[in-house]
Description:
Largest sheet: 7 strands, mixed
Strand content: 5-15%
Amino acid sequence: MNKQGRPTSIAxxxxxxxxxxxxxxALQLEEALVFELDNxxxxxxxxxxxxxxxxxxxxxxRQGRIGLPSVSEPExxxxxxxxSAKNYSIxxxxxxxxxCTMKHNPRLxxxxxxxxxxxxxxxLQPMKTVQGALELMDTLAHWLKELTGMPAVAxxxxxxxxxxxxxxxxxxxxxxxxxEDEARSRVLVPESAHGTNPATAALLxxxxxxxxVTTEGRVDLxxxxxxxxxxxxxxxxxxxxxxxxxxxxIIDIADAVHEAGAYFYCDGANFNAIVGRVRPGDxxxxxxxxxLHKTFSTPHGGGGPxxxxxxxxxxxxxxxxxxxxxxxxxxxxxxxxxxxxxxDGTTPFGRMTAFHGQMGMFxxxxxxxxSHGSDGxxxxxxxxxLNANYVLASLKDDLxxxxxxxxxxxxxxxxxxxxxxxxxxxxxxxxxxDEGYHPMTMYFPLVVHGALLIEPxxxxxxxxxxxxxxxxxxxxxxxxxxxxxxxxGAPYLxxxxxLDETAAARSPVLRWAPPAPKQAAE
Length: 522
């Protein structure tokens, strides 16, 4: 309903110029707000009249309609089905968002997560009734430790950024135990790290210091070493980084961090590029979160339910948060209290969540691991890297790559190929929508001007990737041949045209009026 900036109505102009009486375009139906569907008296359910309780409200009882729309069951079902049909998803087509790993979620995983006894499990059940669930969590923890070469893991964090917070809180707990927390106030964050890394450090009260990248897109080792000092608490480094590149100097970085008495936090969001091939523990990492949705195929985005387990080195393992699973003579149990932890020989910094994590995500991730096996997980990384390099090699002559050489799991381009065309990165991305593709990640990482970050993942076929490549080639050549109109007005074929996003954010139109009844032309 926002009418700021460019028109947000059904596209007009070009091939979409023909208007219809209903506003519908073939079977792509124009959808009103649910409040506009209000039909007083219509209701999908029959409710008994409430018992009078005026006295309890003390004269504040409602005097008129509450303002919720009255809609029948068929109308409300159609409303939400039509809205859902406008969603784009990995089940609809290729999702090239870089740094997000929107891979296919196998239906086998979904079936496992809905099994009786798992789908209806409750965190307040007695431990003797959930031995199977605890064993499943213990098994998942075991394989996460095996795959990373780390001795401990916290399963409870519910997202990547939540995992970052968990890892950094364990680092702070370790510094407190050493009596150095106040003395170590700085956290170093490379420019090629994920944007949540500096936010996490700042949230914990640390002063964030940025480390530049080289012309090769990797951490400037000399600048990093020059910044180290006795007041550094940790480095937060993403590897592979947001330029889609592996940090070649990571062992030297780890050695220097440890020599300075600090800790090495690694953002493991891109673990899917190296799983089965490299163990982060062998690189000198002290803490690393793993996005189960990126590496192990659990559902991604939408605010959850997510999972971001954190693996820890031996130096940080005693400070990992509660709860955690232990296996004794009486079966499996959760260590949930400080007293239990002390008896177990650990000193956790506390809890990250009210309960134990996201059981459904644990099931899906373990099902994915078990169905692939160790050789299959290795192939996941190999195919993800192969697909990304195929995209990079196929497009580097039509688009422009900022760094020489191969990439890891995602291919990065900049906007130099658009220079002099009058077309910007945003215009290019909007034109992709008309071609049936969700745009890739744009303007990120910030170290590259006008960035276009593409991650095909390992789950896309060569045929799907070939068509995507051909589409981007066609768009790039159109931009260079002065077909500016194809871009600056795009998207033309979507249910809504492009917003002036700046004006829409600063002057939103949030109120609506009932539409006037449609009348046939005389």
